[in-house]
Design brief:
By secondary structure, the chain is α/β, with parallel strands linked by helices. It contains 28 helices and 22 strands. Helices cover 39% and strands 14% of the residues. A hairpin with a 2-residue loop joins strand 21 and strand 22.
Length: 724
């Protein structure tokens, strides 16, 4: 998949490559292309490229056969893309990396729109002297965007000449940064000043150099640092060796990682010696660059970075979160999903634009903006007081709330809740990942022999169901799975494992039922939290983490199923999850204060047991199951104090419900689940919304059923798999 930027510039990119070859400029490096781009930059800015090359060691003469008309044509083509020419020049200057090199370096280049966003959020806030620095600048698109926020003329030239600073491992990349910035000014003297502060270095290993250069602190630290964990991967090593392989597939060659791991360990030691905020677990380049950036900023200086969303929610980034909140007087965070294809990666990937004013001034509320499903950011930020956040989220992880109403609801529910991991609560879960699908792969068999037990994978698990899909064929991400109807009573799996190959803890665990959940998820999925009771006699892969309760009582499993599969708890989870439900996130998940022995608790347990028992029942009544689940959702919301209007807000977060259901006349989508839950909740408040009650009656008459996943569609007089 290409980014939008790469798609728009594809024609210009191709023309540059072809022309460089035709003119004999392509010498096996990126040099030929940069020669052409320097000519384009000079034509745009108004300086003579021969003067530029004389100052910065370029070619002696303009290549024979290249006319100014061609350069005007390139400038015209760029203008047609809508990308500002200096930003486009930076993008066109980037070295092409293989997918393996991108992953190992974390070098996912900055889209021009994001560069403008970060610069626009940060440069107007600068109120102190000092350098403007990007410690991993690449071809300089963020530096270019920052300068573009300064009015053209003497002030812009002063910033370029005396403040603008960039560093990168690649001298070729810095040449691109220089030409891109040069396209913003007529003064080559200003460019020469900038050139003196273009540093070929690993910034993480150059802290002493930065202390000298930014002795009084930087007025602006701007960047999109590499996003990559420092680890040696068999998958990436196989890709570098030219082996095509999907994640999850078996390795057909031995990959020796010993040399890579030794080299990596030495590097980690060299870059983490002066750090104190990296936390436990794997080291990540973005965390190291953020800590460096915070250390470089002057008092009242601005730090503005594009960072993975893990900063505001991962366990391993807690120390950085706390430091950022502690040292900043102003803090603005925008949560963005890659819907607009800023990067050539999954459109569901979430990242942050963080802007912080460093200093000891009065700490203002955190300004939070969360992008909508199209990727657009709201004009109005949600104001989150830091003290309030700390009381609700002791680890300072930040809930993704889009409006003040969502923030109030999240805060109120959290205040009236008890988390799964709270020692004062009823749960006391014991977590385990039973079998590792990679490390234990050599123990798996594709057929069941002797006393081997079936292996449950993440695809099997949905709400209340542990065999919602069946394995058909293939392996890893190439495997084919099909939905299995609720009445299906067979477990179709691709792997089996002998109990003798299980650890002692796991071996004892599979002798009884426990709770399992699918840890791969998404905030915009039909549902995000998928929890089921896993019976005895099957073992779970690592994508189905399990939890036991010390009481050993099936009743508490039923209560946990009812609560965690409810829409309002799912809504709470969606505020803090991106793509994975791990133990850290689940442990901090707020649940209403309902005990198993309470009247509400007993009702929810009974309802959950009835829903669970429906799986595998050949005479199952889907309509009854749907109404039971609606009752569960209404009881959970009512007990938590959620009003009917607040429940409407919750339900707005689940637009993919009921896609396979018959629709009411004149409408484009079914709302049977929404209407049933609101109607049942209204009954508990003795205030049934008449509109919803009427809609429920009409939809049921048409055969609509609440809580049927979109994998199933109505055909004739029966439900069938949408994939059959």
């Amino acid at each position: 998949m290409k980014s939008v930027e790469a798609t728009l510039l594809r024609g210009v990119d191709t023309e540059l490559t072809m022309l460089a070859r035709r003119l004999g400029l392509e010498d096996g490096t990126w040099s030929g292309r940069l020669t052409l781009l320097e000519m384009v930059a000079g034509q745009h800015a108004g300086w003579a490229v021969t003067d530029y090359w004389l100052r910065f060691a370029g070619p002696n003469t303009v290549p024979t056969g290249l006319s100014s008309a061609w350069i005007d044509d390139v400038l015209g083509r760029i203008a047609q893309t809508g990308i500002p020419i200096p930003l486009a020049l930076s993008a066109l200057s980037r070295e092409v990396l293989t997918s393996a090199d991108q992953r190992s370096s974390g070098a996912y280049y900055t889209d021009w729109r994001l560069a403008q966003l970060v610069a626009g959020q940060s440069v107007p806030k600068i109120s102190t002297d000092g350098i403007w620095v990007d410690t991993a600048c690449g071809s300089g698109i963020l530096l270019v965007a920052a300068v573009m926020e300064v009015p053209d003329g003497a002030l812009r030239d002063e910033v370029i000449r005396n403040r603008l600073t960039g560093a990168d491992l690649s001298e070729v990349a810095l040449r691109g940064a220089r030409l891109s910035v040069a396209s913003l000014t007529t003064s080559l003297d200003a460019v020469a000043g900038f050139n003196n502060r273009l540093l070929v270095q690993d910034s993480l290993k150059s802290r002493d150099a930065w202390r000298v250069l930014a002795g009084r602190g930087a007025a602006l630290v701007i960047g999109n640092p590499p996003w990559e964990r420092l680890r040696a991967s068999r998958h990436e090593s196989a890709q570098r060796a030219g082996k095509s392989r999907r994640y999850g597939e078996s390795f057909d060659v031995d990959i020796d990682l010993s040399a890579s791991r030794t080299e990596l360990l030495n590097y980690i030691r060299s870059v983490t010696g002066d750090t104190s905020l990296q936390g436990r677990g794997e080291h990540d380049l973005y965390k190291l660059f953020l800590e460096l950036g915070l250390s470089l900023a002057a008092d009242d200086g601005i730090v503005a970075m594009l960072l993975p969303a893990g900063l505001v929610r991962s366990q391993g980034t807690e120390m950085l979160r706390r430091e950022l909140a502690e040292v900043s007087s102003e803090l603005s965070i925008s949560v963005i999903e890659n819907r607009a294809r800023h990067f050539a990666i999954d459109t569901r990937f979430k990242f942050l634009a963080v802007t912080a004013r460093i200093g000891n001034g009065e700490k203002e509320a955190i300004e939070l903006r969360v992008a909508d499903r199209t990727g657009g950011l709201p004009q109005q930020a949600v104001q989150i007081p830091r003290e309030r956040l700390a009381s609700l989220r002791p680890d300072f992880s930040l809930p993704e709330v889009k409006t003040d109403a969502e923030w109030r609801l999240y805060a109120d529910l959290s205040r009236r809740a008890i988390t799964v991991g709270d020692l004062a609560g009823p749960w006391h879960p014991q977590y385990r990942r039973e079998v590792d699908m990679t490390l234990d792969r050599h123990l798996f068999s594709s057929s069941q022999t002797g006393d081997a037990v079936p292996l449950l994978e993440g695809r099997h698990v949905s709400q209340y169901r542990w065999r919602s899909k069946r394995y058909v064929s293939g392996e890893g991400r190439a495997a084919i799975w099909e939905p299995q109807e609720l009445s299906g009573d067979k477990l179709e799996t691709q792997w089996f494992i002998s109990p003798s190959d299980l650890s002692a803890g796991t071996g004892g665990r599979i002798s009884r039922s426990r709770i399992g959940f699918c840890d791969i998820t998404g905030q915009t999925n039909e549902r995000s939290l998928l929890v089921a009771r896993v019976p005895a006699g099957v073992v779970c892969g690592n994508k189905v983490p399990t939890l036991n309760f010390p009481q050993g009582d099936p009743a508490i499993e039923g209560l946990f199923l009812a609560l965690t599969n409810s829409l309002v708890v799912d809504w709470m989870l969606r505020r803090v999850v991106t793509t994975t439900v791990n133990f850290f996130i689940l442990d901090a998940l707020p649940l209403p204060k309902i005990t198993p022995a309470s009247d509400i608790g007993l009702s929810l347990i009974e309802l959950a047991q009835a829903v669970t028992a429906a799986e595998g029942n050949s005479e199952v009544d889907r309509g009854l199951v749907g109404r039971l689940r609606s009752r569960i959702d209404a009881l959970t919301a009512f007990t938590w104090g959620v009003t009917v209007d607040q429940m409407r807000l919750v339900l707005d977060d689940f637009p993919l419900l009921d896609r396979g259901q018959p629709t009411l006349y004149g409408e484009s989508a079914s709302t049977i689940t929404r209407d049933c839950v609101l109607s049942d909740l209204g009954k508990l408040y003795d205030d049934v919304p008449q509109i919803e009650a009427d809609r429920v009656d009409r939809a049921l008459e048409m055969g609509a059923i609440p809580f049927v996943p979109a994998e199933y569609v109505w055909e004739g007089q029966e439900w069938r798999s949408a994939h059959r």
